[in-house]
């Protein structure tokens, strides 16, 4: 293996430790513990595991957790009503809707029920607009975590060609906006992109967020490229064929231990940001 690993674990631990210090300061000054509310619809095992992980990390950061678990048959209207209650609750500072939600729910309507001041996962249209226009606001947790990881490893983005594979509104699209704000030249690729391997070979930075195990192969990459695997599939497998890519890339994120810890760390950091803004 020739690539250096971009490990998110240590940086994420530093971020959580700093968030814990700030959370303690908020509690000392205002007598209020920052609180993150998680909303889970249904009983998908992977989603339930993610929520538990976020709640456990919250405790380590001195952030209170409130859990709302709704049955799988919940309607859009019922979910929106629950989220609006949390949005109006002054004891809740951040709201996370675990996604994906069951098929009968309008996910976008549910996201938009989150008070923008509590959108610590960066999923509302207002948060996306802030990222697109470079305004202050919450970053989508995974793209924001990716940017922090790239900065930690001194990846030069100005003038670089970045290819983002995937165009979801909470991962691919905001990742491209944040890269653009760093003066990268950004190309979005997706399921209808023609000659995808040839396009990826032109990239200095590749963000894989397609949701298919081992989708990006080593011979798709430009030698010396920086590869960020934002995928997570069954069996702890990312969207990039790691062994092949590591023989070509200069830097690469492992799965697990790369992007995942950064996502949670940024979520907690932004929860403390939200608490400070609401209290101060």
Automatic annotation (TrEMBL):
Recorded family membership: Belongs to the tetrahydrofolate dehydrogenase/cyclohydrolase family.
Q: Which domain of life is it from?
A: Bacteria
Q: How does it assemble?
A: Homodimer.
In the UniProt record, does the keyword Hydrolase occur?
A: yes
GO CC terms in record: cytosol
A molecular function (GO) held by this record is: methylenetetrahydrofolate dehydrogenase (NADP+) activity
Look up the EC number in the record and give it: 1.5.1.5, 3.5.4.9
Give all residue intervals belonging to the Tetrahydrofolate dehydrogenase/cyclohydrolase NAD(P)-binding domain: 140-278
PROSITE patterns linked: THF_DHG_CYH_2 (PS00767)
Q: In which pathway does it act?
A: One-carbon metabolism; tetrahydrofolate interconversion
Q: Residue ranges of the Tetrahydrofolate dehydrogenase/cyclohydrolase catalytic domain?
A: 8-121
Catalytic activity reads: (6R)-5,10-methenyltetrahydrofolate + H2O = (6R)-10-formyltetrahydrofolate + H(+); (6R)-5,10-methylene-5,6,7,8-tetrahydrofolate + NADP(+) = (6R)-5,10-methenyltetrahydrofolate + NADPH
Binding residues for NADP(+): 166-168
| Job description of the protein | Catalyzes the oxidation of 5,10-methylenetetrahydrofolate to 5,10-methenyltetrahydrofolate and then the hydrolysis of 5,10-methenyltetrahydrofolate to 10-formyltetrahydrofolate.
Gene3D superfamilies the UniProt entry points to: Leucine Dehydrogenase, chain A, domain 1 (3.40.50.10860), NAD(P)-binding Rossmann-like Domain (3.40.50.720)
Q: Which GO terms describe its biological process?
A: L-histidine biosynthetic process; methionine biosynthetic process; purine nucleotide biosynthetic process; tetrahydrofolate interconversion
Q: What is this protein called?
A: Bifunctional protein FolD
CDD domains attached to this UniProt entry: NAD_bind_m-THF_DH_Cyclohyd
What keywords does the record list, in alphabetical order?
Amino-acid biosynthesis, Histidine biosynthesis, Hydrolase, Methionine biosynthesis, Multifunctional enzyme, NADP, One-carbon metabolism, Oxidoreductase, Purine biosynthesis
């Amino acid at each position: 293996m020739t690539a250096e690993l971009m490990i998110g674990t240590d940086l994420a631990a530093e971020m959580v430790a700093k968030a814990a210090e700030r959370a303690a300061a908020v509690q000392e000054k205002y007598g209020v513990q920052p609180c993150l509310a998680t909303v889970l619809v249904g009983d998908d095992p992977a989603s339930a595991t993610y929520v538990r992980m976020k709640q456990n990390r919250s405790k380590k950061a001195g952030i209170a957790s409130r859990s709302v678990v709704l049955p799988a048959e919940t309607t859009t209207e019922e979910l929106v009503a629950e989220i609006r209650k949390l949005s109006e609750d002054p004891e809740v500072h951040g709201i996370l809707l675990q996604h994906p939600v069951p098929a009968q729910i309008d996910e976008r309507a549910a996201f938009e029920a989150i008070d923008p001041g509590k959108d610590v996962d960066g999923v509302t249209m207002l948060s996306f607009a802030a990222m697109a226009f470079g305004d202050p606001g919450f970053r989508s947790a995974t793209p924001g975590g990716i940017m922090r990881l790239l900065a930690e490893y001194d990846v030069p983005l100005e003038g670089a060609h970045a290819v983002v594979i995937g165009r979801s509104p909470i991962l691919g699209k905001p990742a491209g906006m944040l890269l653009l704000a760093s003066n990268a030249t950004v190309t979005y690729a997706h399921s209808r992109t023609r000659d995808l391997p040839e396009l990826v070979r032109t990239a200095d930075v590749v963000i894989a967020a397609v949701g298919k195990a081992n989708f990006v192969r080593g011979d798709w990459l430009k030698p010396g490229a920086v590869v960020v695997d934002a995928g997570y599939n069954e069996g702890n497998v990312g969207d990039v064929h790691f062994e092949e890519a590591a023989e070509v890339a200069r830097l690469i994120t492992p799965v697990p231990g790369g992007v995942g810890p950064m996502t949670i760390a940024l979520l907690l950091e932004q929860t403390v940001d939200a608490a400070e803004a609401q209290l101060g």
